[in-house]
# Entry
Amino acid sequence: MNYNKKTVYDVDVKGKKVLLRCDFNVPQNKETGEITSDKRIVAAIPTIKYLLDNGAAVIACSHLGKPKGEWKTKLTLAPVAERLAQLLGQDVIFAKDIIGEDAQAKAAALQPGQILLLENLRFDIREEKNGADFAKALADMAEIFVSDAFGTVHRAHASTAGVAAYLPAYSGLLVDKELSIMGKALDDPKRPFVAVLGGAKVSDKINVINNLLEKADTIIIGGGMAYTFKKAQGYEIGTSLLEADRIDYANDMIAKAAAKGVKFLLPVDNYCAAEFSADAEPVLVEGNIPENLMGMDIGPKTVALFTEAVKGAGTIVWNGPMGVFEFDKFAGGTKAMAKALAESGAVTIVGGGDSAAAVEKLGFADKITHISTGGGASLEFLEGKELPGVACLQDK
Ligand code: AMP
# Structure
């Protein structure tokens, strides 16, 4: 897949109407609707400012939550318009609909330097179904399409991919950053290239492991998914997470790594617990795990092994926690990995979702080269899949 895409810097936006797909899918207080973190709105500001400062009229759009084609008042983007206006220090015109009369009229009247926000795209079922008429109606309001919502580029929706059939399509600054850093890591990594994978399930990461086996020098596996690999190696794993139907696959991967000369590291000791609970007492176990215990985190010898493996790396990609980091007693392994990445001196990339949350919660965010803004999207990126919202952008 080609990640080298034209950006907003490659097109003259002056006097043009720009349809800008943002990720304004902000967390909200369920009762009051109050925005509990405006991080995603803040992250969209550089591209919006660039477009406005360079004489574009910006028609911004986004989804919020999962209304599934229903008009749900609680999921209106109106509070986002308000917060965006505060952050930009200028009016944000808000449309009461998406491609309806209000949006059309407001888009038609929009002047250079002004910004309009359309109502929640997913109030219309045709957004997620990539309805051609819906995509065309969105596109008809503008002359250029800019994609800046990395979190949804793995979806072939009307506003993420469909509109590019009708408009010249460019990446915004956020998407460009994701593509250039992660694209380089996969296509031309500074070596040694180490991949650290964790999280609950092997089945979620199969395609990632397959793809990284072709590219990485070392693959480190921690988290719940490691136990299926340990079982495949003949170890007892007690009541730890196991995907019995993936044991053959795990064996294949271990053999494939050996054949390719890729180092494949698994935990050698674990903090276990008698029950899956925040209050459970951690029991350190090396080798076989007794039948009444489950592996909840990697142990100190494993931390030392994994830390050593990332030392001297040129590029490190991390996706998925090393243990049940939500429970303080079992967050040590994930914390130690975050620290090892932060101190490695390598180009460090953390996939979105849980590992990004872990790095942020543990206070290492500013020492990581890049924390992806897209959980699902960054995972599919690592799988080497073609992302519809990227493929549709103009090549450089
Ligand atoms: P994922 O979404 O696949 O990245 O998985 C993240 C989840 O995996 C987190 O909620 C962790 O608590 C969980 N997890 C990590 N290690 C373990 C483990 N040893 N046992 C059970 N769950 C785990």
